[in-house]
């Protein structure tokens, strides 16, 4: 039976706003809605009209709490309300079945706002009110678009722009004008990494410093960053295949190769890992320097004092144990990473770069259509290829 998420999950914190920012946004909404109500009441005195459409309340949340959102731009607010109100009135006048009229009004408002680039959720409420607002609204016909909708929009927008100006809110920018190219002069190793060079705490602090609610989760921001780097990788290599830049011939060892022999191979060829193959050259694993280091670091299984250096521990690990029994790893097959993560020689390099970061690997064996080893692709190979493309 699947477990339910913890109780706190349902009441997770939604924003990184300070208490000051929260109080300021609520106060701004109080003033704005009050002014809209008072001005509309004075203007519409003597008329049997509502002084305010309910969607103004929802709009206040967006305009004063999420001003950086594309849903909160002046055009989104004004256009979304007016277009939706126009569609709502049309549906109320021409579709006699009220349930159908409400459905068409909301759907039509969504379509219109999308294509007119003024998507604003409260606009759906403005369209709905034109259909369900009762006789006082339906008797107005298209005048509903002008009063109260346009009147409310003009007053609310004026107050909003004044508040944004006084609060120093720039709807289009966070204040940092440098281009991405200027901000991200990455080294080759940073460019290759598809994981963000920051953690959740860094992201939380950065969002808090902006002083506005960003309507996107931190996980989504990380995902966007990673996908943007993926796109950059793809554009850089195009349709270049693994076979074009892989190292060949590929060195390899077998399951029963002794650890000392593998270590000598590392030192002789100045490499950090080799694939492990069976008798048919099928890749069954990969052994790296990290495998040796991790095993040597495990002091629980070694009688050496903790004061012994890593070099001494590695030397003991590689030393063959006499006889037929041993309490430590003796051959490659006992310490290798298995199953092996591989790439086919006809696969695009851009599609394989992510594997290095997803699995925290440095070496990627390359195989043919029969799954036999034909080469090795490393981070250095990729960075060298990228450097040659930039020349």
UniProtKB/TrEMBL annotation:
<keyword id="KW-0472">Membrane</keyword>
<feature type="transmembrane region" description="Helical">
    <location>
        <begin position="101"/>
        <end position="119"/>
    </location>
</feature>
<protein>
    <recommendedName>
        <fullName>CBS domain-containing protein</fullName>
    </recommendedName>
</protein>
<dbReference type="InterPro" id="IPR046342">
    <property type="entry name" value="CBS_dom_sf"/>
</dbReference>
<keyword id="KW-0812">Transmembrane</keyword>
<dbReference type="Pfam" id="PF04982">
    <property type="entry name" value="TM_HPP"/>
</dbReference>
<feature type="transmembrane region" description="Helical">
    <location>
        <begin position="21"/>
        <end position="43"/>
    </location>
</feature>
<dbReference type="InterPro" id="IPR000644">
    <property type="entry name" value="CBS_dom"/>
</dbReference>
<dbReference type="Pfam" id="PF00571">
    <property type="entry name" value="CBS"/>
</dbReference>
<feature type="transmembrane region" description="Helical">
    <location>
        <begin position="140"/>
        <end position="164"/>
    </location>
</feature>
<dbReference type="InterPro" id="IPR058581">
    <property type="entry name" value="TM_HPP"/>
</dbReference>
<feature type="domain" description="CBS">
    <location>
        <begin position="336"/>
        <end position="391"/>
    </location>
</feature>
<dbReference type="InterPro" id="IPR007065">
    <property type="entry name" value="HPP"/>
</dbReference>
<keyword id="KW-1133">Transmembrane helix</keyword>
<feature type="domain" description="CBS">
    <location>
        <begin position="246"/>
        <end position="302"/>
    </location>
</feature>
């Amino acid at each position: 039976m699947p477990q339910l998420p913890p109780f706190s999950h349902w009441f997770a914190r939604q924003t990184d706003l300070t208490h000051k920012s929260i109080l300021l946004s609520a106060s701004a909404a109080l003033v704005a809605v009050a002014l809209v109500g008072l001005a509309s009441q004075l203007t519409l005195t003597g008329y049997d009209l509502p002084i305010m459409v309910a969607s103004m309340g929802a709009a206040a949340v967006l305009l004063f709490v999420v001003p950086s959102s594309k849903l909160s731009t002046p055009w989104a607010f004004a256009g979304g309300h007016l277009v939706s109100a126009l569609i709502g009135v049309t549906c109320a006048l021409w579709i006699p079945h009220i349930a159908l009229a409400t459905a068409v009004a909301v759907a039509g408002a969504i379509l219109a706002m999308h294509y007119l680039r003024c998507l604003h959720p409260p606009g759906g409420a403005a369209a709905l009110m034109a259909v369900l607002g009762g006789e006082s609204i339906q008797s107005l016909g298209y005048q509903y678009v002008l009063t109260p909708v346009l009147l409310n929009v003009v007053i609310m927008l004026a107050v909003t722009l004044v508040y944004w100006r006084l609060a120093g809110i720039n709807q289009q920018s966070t204040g940092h004008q440098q281009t991405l190219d200027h901000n991200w002069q990455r080294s080759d190793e940073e460019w290759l990494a598809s994981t963000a060079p920051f953690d959740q705490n860094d992201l939380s602090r950065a969002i808090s410093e902006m002083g506005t609610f960003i309507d996107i989760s931190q996980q989504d921001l990380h995902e966007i960053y990673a996908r943007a780097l993926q796109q950059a990788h793809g554009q850089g290599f195009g349709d270049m295949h693994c076979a074009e830049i892989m190292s060949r011939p590929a060195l390899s060892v077998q399951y029963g190769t002794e650890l000392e022999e593998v270590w000598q191979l590392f030192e002789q060829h100045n490499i950090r890992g080799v694939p492990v193959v069976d008798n048919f050259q099928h890749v069954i694993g990969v052994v790296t320097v990290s495998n040796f280091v991790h095993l040597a670091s495990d002091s629980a299984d070694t009688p050496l004092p903790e004061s012994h250096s890593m070099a001494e521990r590695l030397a003991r690990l590689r030393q063959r144990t006499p006889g037929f029994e041993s309490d430590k790893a003796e051959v490659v097959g006992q310490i290798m990473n298995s199953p092996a993560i591989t790439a086919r020689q006809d696969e695009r390099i851009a599609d394989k770069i992510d594997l290095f970061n997803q699995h925290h690997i440095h070496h990627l064996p390359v195989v043919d259509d029969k799954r036999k080893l034909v080469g090795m692709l490393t981070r250095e190979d990729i960075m060298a290829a990228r450097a040659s493309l930039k020349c």
